[in-house]
Amino acid sequence: MRLPLLTLEQKLAEIKRLYFRATRQTIDEDLARALDLLRSMTTEEERERATVYMDGLAQMRRDWSRSKKRGRPRTKGDE
To answer: pTM of this prediction?
Structure first.
């Protein structure tokens, strides 16, 4: 996938948007898109700014994958 040229702030805003709008049905695509954006960042300092959202997306994916195996639907607010 070819990404348009985005500024660092646009990339961070997109990762943040993906995090807040992720659902059980979209998490795999959202995480893949966020990873593409993360990989396009040029420095470690830039990537560090996205860490909290990337960790959150990865945790949602783990939780939702785990609950799918158990057959129990979970929402973002489940603990």
So the answer is: 0.78
